[in-house]
Amino acid sequence: MGQAQHAKWAISGKGELVRDPLSGDGARNQVSGVGAGAVQGRDFQGNTIHLHSGGAQTPRPRQLPRDVSCFTGRRRDMSALDSLLDESTSRSVTMIVSAIAGAAGVGKTALAVHWAHRVRDRFPDGDLYVNLQGYGPGRPLLPGDVLDGFLTALGTAPERIPREVESRAAMFRTLVDGRRMLIVLDNANSAEQVRPMLPGSRGPLVVITSRSRLAGLVARDDAFRVHLDLLAPDEASMLLGKIVGPDRIAAESEAAIRIAQFCAHLPLALRITAEYLAAHPRRPLAELAQTLAGEDNRLDVLAAGDDETTAVRNVFSWSYRALRPELARTFRLSGLHAGPDMSIDAIAALTGTGTVATRRLVDGVAAVHLIEEPADGRYRFHDLLRVYAGERAIADESGAARKEAVERVLLWYLHATSAARTVLTVGRPRTPLMLPSEFGLPPASAPVFTGHREALAWCDAELANIEAAIGQAAEEGRDDVACWLPVVLQPYFQRRNPFRAWVATHTAGLDAARSVNDAQAEAELNRGIGGAYYYQGRFEESYEHQRRALDGYRALGWDGEIILVNLGSVCAALERYDESFVHLREALGLSRRTGHRNAEGFALQSMGATCQRLNRFEESVPYCRDAAEVFRETGDRFGFGIALARLAYAFLRQRKMPESIDCLRQALGNSRDIGDHPGEAWLLETLGTATYEIGQKESALENWRDALRLYERLLDNDGAARVRTQLSGPAVPLTTPLPRL
Predict the structure, then answer these.
(1) What is the pTM of this model?
(2) Are strands 31-33 and 38-42 parallel, antiparallel or unpaired?
(3) What is the pLDDT of residue 156?
(4) d(CA 392, CA 399)
(5) Alpha-carbon gap, residue 339 to 196, rounded angstroms
């Protein structure tokens, strides 16, 4: 269906992945070659994943954010974590979980990240990190989303990640079993949010930060709690001294003590204050202490007694007013961003400023610790600062100015995602997609992508932000943006298969499309959500949405060739083969009359696939051959590779080995060129089978060894097991399953 078809997978009782023998590999893997013996890619948060060579080439992710500069004190807490680490290597326990609890701004993340960097070399199998967004204005991350990101970081191809959270958790436990890995789950809001990510055996160590005491983890999961308190007075002065200079603190020790008290001994507030003092070396500490003392009477926003920002709002207010006007504006408008992090280009869209100038402004805000840069080019707020920035936007910007800023960034996401779609949609677009004219031209800061990998990496990094933008668009009355954002993201969804986000964005988009009576968007969204259900094996639901999409297309006066292809594929999956051929033949005839070449290629390919489901291999050959030729002419190398693989398989099953080998070698070169690693593994395995059949045993063994290395790197247990059986002495020929369907 479309560019990629999803395989059926299940989790065994041991948490191992088992594949339906009639299913294939599905969408393209998201890793890309970076040199001999190593590949890299990104997980759903944009973190870089390194897959190292050697042995089975298992991934060793390194996801920790940057270490904390000028970390001060916490000797007792660091010692407690050291003791837990030592105990985790000596005690026979299921796992060790360190739950760091404390109030907002007390330094939980700083302690966890700093300690993790200090002991990183004791975890040779890598480290995983995620901000669970448990507290703040946005939606906390769901366990299924976190597991999706972790499994991807551990080398699992997206199409192999199970649908159910329990199955994902079982798969995760299998992959980390016995490995010395450090897992940091930052900013959790409940035990239920983190429990699916807890390993089931010795090896990994989990560190959790939360404002909650997470009593359930201690009671049920053998967790050890380290309760983090405010900094002691001497530690607070020491932190100020590290940034301001110890001599200056010693010269005005009483004023330094008062400043620390006004900062509530919270590291976040202390760092902000210290950075200001360091930037103003001639200002007496006593003068600053007097200024802070008067802040209570000058606040523009009154705080409720239980408001978590009360303790540091004075410092925020004073620090904010100390900013130059252009920095203050950048700070408060950035607070209107709905997602978990921001790129420079997104902030430029919010502020309406050029990219170069925006980078300079954001660096100025980051220099005084009002925003942080956990990874190059990605910025985010501490939860408290996000709330405060939003307050200042309400207080200091007019309603019209706030609305314009939000609309600018929403349209920026729409145009940026549309640019990615253009790159990911090869040949003539498979749908007559035209953005409504009211969206205007792309802004100057919209990205320009040079190829598939760059576009996919951008979408990986921005997926959570795009999902948040869809919700924000609906809240702001821009249902037109809310319904089109998921539409332009469809080629990405087809490549990566992030099913929760796929279904959630399209469901929200359908509501928005209906509210503004956008028939084109509604048809597109029905097609897209039908694809998501198809890849998940929810064929009846997929069929219903594809039927609605076809009705919508025809009401708009479009033929809907690609929808007919999708319906044919769904009917074949439902074993309604006669109906499948009816839809596919109609799609083929329409696409040839309209000149829609890619739809023609997919129709031919799907007819060949349906024939192969019925073991009619000779009949499938002309369909697969014609599909390959169409994709060759349109330049769709992904479709071309699948068509060649189908053709090779048809020849293989007819024992036409020379023809099969020729197709396999062509497809193999194509897969290597475009970075299709699951396809490459299948082709190597099948090439080994074909060459073994004609007596080229050394060549067969070499191909199987290469296939085994790829399957192991992709954590494809089923594929690896098949190839190991062949390497041990082929007993049953032609055991290779069908190519991806």
Answers:
(1) 0.69
(2) antiparallel
(3) 84
(4) 12
(5) 24
Amino acid identity, position 313 = R
262-289 in b/e form (b: 16+ CB < 10 A) is bbbbbbbbbbbbbbbbbeeeeeebeebb
Element (H, E) at 388: helix 383-396
- Residue indicated by tokens 């009211």: 438
Tokens of 56: 């089975």
Structure tokens at 73: 């004190």
Helices 637-653 and 657-674 pack at an angle, to 10 degrees, of 160
Q: What pLDDT shows up at residue 425?
A: 77
Residue by residue, DSSP assigns 522-580 as: HHHHHHHHHHHHHHTT-HHHHHHHHHHHHHHHHHTT---HHHHHHHHHHHHHTT-HHHH
Q: What is the 3-state secondary structure (H, E, C) of 603-653?
A: HHHHHHHHHHHCCCHHHHHHHHHHHHHHHHHHCCHHHHHHHHHHHHHHHHH
Topology classification of domain 75-227: Rossmann fold (3.40.50)
Tell me the pLDDT band of 104, cut-offs 50, 70 and 90: low
Best-predicted range by mean pLDDT (287-291, 296-300, 417-421): 417-421
Query: Got the DSSP string for 36-55?
Result: TTEEEEE-TT--EEEEE-ST
3-class DSSP state for residue 130?
strand
| Span 277-304, average pLDDT | 66
Enumerate the domain spans of the chain: 75-227, 232-322
Q: Where are the alpha helices (DSSP H) in 476-538?
A: 479-488, 490-496, 499-515, 519-535
Average pLDDT, rounded, for the chain: 81
DSSP state at residue 430: S
Residue matched to tokens 């339906």: 20
Residues 249, 233: Cα–Cα separation, whole Å? 13
Measure the CA–CA gap between 499 and 423, rounded to whole angstroms.
Answer: 22
Task: Tell me the DSSP string of 166-214.
Answer: HHHHHHHHHHHTT---EEEEEEE--HHHHGGG--SSSS-EEEEEESS--
CA 303 to chain centre: 36
DSSP string, 348-361: HHHHT--HHHHHHH
Tally of residues, the chain: 741
* Residue 78 buriedness (CB in 10 A; 0-12 / 13-18 / 19+): middle
Nearest C-alpha neighbor of 318 from the set 343, 287, 341: 287
Query: Which residue type, as a one-letter code, is found at position 467?
Result: E
What is the sign, positive or negative, of the torsion defined by CA atoms of 325, 327, 332, 333? Answer: positive
Produce one character per residue of 412-428: b if its CB has 16 or more CB atoms within 10 Å, e if not: bbbbbbbbbbebbbbbe
Q: And the tokens for 445? A: 């800061």
Please give the backbone phi and psi of residue 98, each rounded to the nearest 5 degrees, phi first.
-100, 110
Write phi, then psi, for 210 (nearest 5 degrees).
-165, 150
Tell me how far apart the alpha carbons of residues 140 and 118 are, in angstroms, rounded to a whole number.
28
**In angstroms, what CA-CA distances link 112 with 66, 226, 228?**
12, 11, 11
Segment 503-534, tens digit of pLDDT: 999 999 999 999 999 999 999 999 999 999 98
Alpha-carbon distance 1 to 158, whole Å?
16
Please list the helix, strand and coil fractions of the chain in percent, rounded to the nearest 5, in that order: 60, 10, 30
Q: Which residue has the tokens 């933008």?
A: 469
Closest CA to 2 of 561, 458, 543, 462: 561
Query: Using CA atoms, how far apart are residues 135 and 268, in angstroms rounded to an integer?
Result: 16
